[in-house]
Structures are given as C-alpha cells and as structure tokens.
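How a chain folds remains the central question behind the approach discussed here. This step matters because it turns folding into a mapping between discrete strings. The sequence in question and its structure tokens are set out directly beneath this paragraph.
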Amino acid sequence: MKNDVISPEFDENGRPLRRIRSFVRRQGRLTKGQQHALDNIWPVMGVEFNDAPLDFAALFGREAPVTLEIGFGMGASLVAMAKEKPQQNFLGIEVHSPGVGACLASAEEEGVQNLRVMCHDAVEVLHTMIPDNSLSMVQLFFPDPWHKARHNKRRIVQPPFAELVKSKLKLGGVFHMATDWEQYAEHMLEVMSSLEGYRNRSESNDYVPRPESRP
C-alpha cells in the first residue's frame, strides 16, 4: 500500500496549492493484526489511487449495485453491511492506515468477498476515480464535526462536495449521512436543502431515524 493519501497539487507556476481538507492525518501505531492485513489482504482487496476511472465490473468481477462509504473508521459496520448484503458491492475509503488494516482483517475473518478499500483522500477519489452515474449509495457516517466556528469551513459536507456526490450517484441513488453532533446535523440539513436534484426522504423534510439496515 502506497503511503500517499494526498496527491500533490500545483498551480501553473509549479507552486504547491493548499486545499482545505476535512481531515487531519494521524498516523497511529499498527497492531500486528493490522500490519498482517495490510501486507497480505491489501493486495487482494486494496485499491491504489490512480489517475483513471475505476471499472467496477472488473474490480469486483461482476455487475452489481455499488455502495461507497467515506471515512469508515475501523470498518466494523462496513464489513457487517457487506456480509449482510452479498448481492451488492462495497467500496470503502479511509485515510488512516490502522483503520484500513482493521477493516481488511475483519473482512478476512468474516469471509467477505464483495468489499474493496482505499487509503486516500475521498474527494480526490470522487473527482478522479469514480465514474459519473455509477453509485447506488454514498454513505458518510460521523464525519469530523469541526465544532469550532473557525474550523467549520473544514466540514466535508459543503455544497460543492454534495454536488460532486450527486454527479456520481445513479438516478434514484441515495446519499446517506449520519452525525451525533446536533450543530453538524443542522449544517447538513441546511446544505442539502439548498441544492437542487436531491429529495429529502424524511416525511417532515428534516431528519430520518437510523435505518434497521445500518449495523
């Protein structure tokens, strides 16, 4: 696995650009199990960042609906969903290698075959590797709330990001978000309500309860 979760960006004069990012990369120590998974399972289930669109049928060896999860943490719920829905394909993106290792180890233990993972900036992956109109669902569970006012601009849920996600969803696809921070929930609702092309699935046009399908 390459150690390059962020691709360098430069202006026309060759000066590096600084894009506001929604994450701070914290490199924790890998457990032996996580390292084993990165060494042995990553070559099978890992996807390196590449400046070319993915062919999902080739990646998974079949045609099936694709769910993309952004920021899967240690991967417990993602692996559980993939195991529960073998008829679907799942792609997870996480920037922290211990989480990627833990997810891979869990997938191996559970015998999950319909899951692939990446260790890279999800916004770059969406821009570069995810074909338009290709995803059935995008999941964003408990992103960093950046609760201090001066850091609110770092929140991943912003109009440009939501528009980018929309371009990758098939017609009728779902962008499913969850947070346990009330102010972020209000921010999410405000952003999504300001955009055309999305329909809130809440009957009261605000929030929906946690679905039974989510572990």
About this structure: Strands lie at 66-70, 89-93, 115-118, 135-141, 169-178. The chain is about 35% helix and 15% strand. The first strand starts at residue 66 and ends at 70. The radius of gyration is 17 Å.
